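Weekly puzzle thread! Below is a chain. First person to post its structure in C-alpha cell form gets bragging rights.
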Amino acid sequence: GIVAGIGTVKADDPMLNCRLERQQIHQPIRIIVDTKASIPLDSQIVKTSKDYRTILAIGSSIANSQSSTVDMLKSFNVEILCCEEKDGHVDINDLMTKLGGLGIDSLLLEGGSTINAAFLEADCVDEVYAFIAPKIIGGQNSKSPIGGNGIDLMKDAIMLKDIKIEQFDNDILIKGKIKST
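Winning reply:
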C-alpha cells in the first residue's frame, strides 16, 4: 500500500498510482489517513477510486456519527476503515493492525511531515528513503519532512543503520534502516 495524510491530499491532489510504462503494473492500494473524513469529493483520489483500490482511514468519532460524506465516499467505491483515535487523530498502531488484517503488510509513506511524524512516533517505520534535491529553500518557517514535536537533544534523534547513498540525476537518495534503541 501507499499512504498519504489528508494534508498531502488537500495540498497536492496526488493520484498515488504507479505510472511506469510496463505491461502489467501492480498498482498499490492507496490509503489515506483522514480522521474527520474531510477528503474533497473532487480530489484525484476520490475521482479515480473506481480505478484504483482506495482505503480511507477515519477516526471512530466520525464513524460513529451519521455522516453523509462517508456514504458519498462509499458510492465512489472508497473503502472506509474505522480506526481508534489517539489525541484526536487516527491511531497509527490500530491502523497498522487493521491493514495487516486486510493482508496489507508493506507500506510506502508518500505523505508530508505530519504523517511521517505520526508513523515514526508510533514506531511503525522500518526503513527510510530520504531524497535530497540540490535546492535551497531556507526560511524560518520552511517545511520539514518530519513534523510532530521533534526532539530536544541530539542524543534522542532517530538513528539509521546500514546506510546506502545513491544519486539519481541531480537528486541524492539516502536509505537506511531504523536503528533500534
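Puzzle host: Confirmed. Bonus trivia for everyone else. The chain has six helices and ten strands.
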